[in-house]
Amino acid sequence: MPAPHSRATVLVYGAGGALGRSVVNAFYQAKWHRIIAVDFNDRVPGATDTIKLDLGMNMEECHSRIVKEAGLLGGQPLDSLVCVSGGFAMGGANDDAIFESVKAMYSSSVYPSFISAKLAGDFLKQNGLLLLPGAACVERPTPWGLAYGSAKAAVHHLIGSLASDATLRAKVGTLVVGIAPVTLDTPGNREAMPNEDWSAWTSCDELAERIVAWSEGTVTADNGAIYKLITKGGETDYVIM
Amino acid sequence: MPAPHSRATVLVYGAGGALGRSVVNAFYQAKWHRIIAVDFNDRVPGATDTIKLDLGMNMEECHSRIVKEAGLLGGQPLDSLVCVSGGFAMGGANDDAIFESVKAMYSSSVYPSFISAKLAGDFLKQNGLLLLPGAACVERPTPWGLAYGSAKAAVHHLIGSLASDATLRAKVGTLVVGIAPVTLDTPGNREAMPNEDWSAWTSCDELAERIVAWSEGTVTADNGAIYKLITKGGETDYVIM
Questions:
Q1: B165 in contact with A at a CB cutoff of 8 Å?
Q2: I need a labelling partner for B110 at 20 to 30 A (CA). Which of A8, A212, B148, B202 fits?
Q3: Distance separating alpha carbons of residues A188 and A192, to the nearest angstrom
Q4: What transmembrane ranges does the database entry give (chains A, B) (predicted)?
Q5: CA distance B2 to A159
Q6: How far apart (Å, rounded) are the C-alpha atoms in residues A90 and A99?
Q7: pLDDT tens-digit series, residues A143-154
Q8: Do the chains contact at B167 and A63, CB–CB below 8 Å?
Q9: CB neighbours (10 Å) of residue B191?
């Protein structure tokens, strides 16, 4: 008998980014039947379905397109919903781009998290997994990135709240977890920080494998936990914040 | 010699709400020279200037109108900037109005806080006060109000970050504080909760007097502190969260 939620349907929100592509690939390698990729891309390698969002769509429009194009109404429910959408911006109280940064950070992290929460409330199976994109920096004030830090703090609070949300708790065994990277090892980050110690950065492929393991239940996750990713010498510890 | 920042210029963002009106009135009673009220109202009693925002304006537009109509560029700097803008919404993961709530909560609490942060960065005096609108419920998960809780968590993180923001720290003696009410004693709350113990609610007028005292430096506030308002039998304690 197969595990209750292995190798079925996953939706990956933010599938076009470096981590998103690793996540899609890891579910592909794990032979999940249906891998629904959501992003601004035309096609994500390994996905069975790609849902392309347009820049400038609001939350309702993104949500409606996903529900429609994924055939969620009356279709197969989701076994796993992995939101790894995100962005990054610096800037303090006198930054002239502060409002642009707020809009970008909320659009890339907070709104996709709420859309994922609603999709999970309506379409996630019993014993399913909802994963949202946090950040380790939220442990401390982030004067260097007011918009980024506050958006990630909003996501962290959302994770804790969803872990005890009545709708999600009614789906027995369902878990809501967050990931809180320090730095992900992506081409963009290598380009931006060429002189840093990359061995202290977290591999997207390894993290993606962990996300599949949490989804399949082969590695235990705690409901409401936000996992800080502490990487040293290429090895990553998952420490609950 | 007058205290360094008494009886000069204050900007009250969200001046048209129950707390905002109390705050404007308290500064009026304290004989501050200039009281700039910002809200969707035509006129707030006691204010020397009222800046009316339009619903649907984005952050940049709100900010520009305030800077222009208050004559901040090249004009007198602000001694105190009090943002008490806010809203309230219930709703969990399967709430059909969740996206509307997210938009409403971020528009009413988060965006005004960022606009206030930018105004403070550019126009707040040395030894000034910036106050932002938090909420006591953020201490715990808020599954009953996902949008409300996450928006207030974002504001709390912003307060902590602004307290160590380089621009604001360069203004010697300047304080960034938050207020975290449990329940404010407003007509709206009395109407919504007629059977609650109103003596456990915080008086807007008393809180407004405390905000004037913090602004004038006659009562000490701690930089970065978020003050939880614990009211019992009509008496309010200000407890740092």
A1: yes
A2: B202
A3: 6
A4: none
A5: 49
A6: 12
A7: 999 999 999 999
A8: no
A9: 8
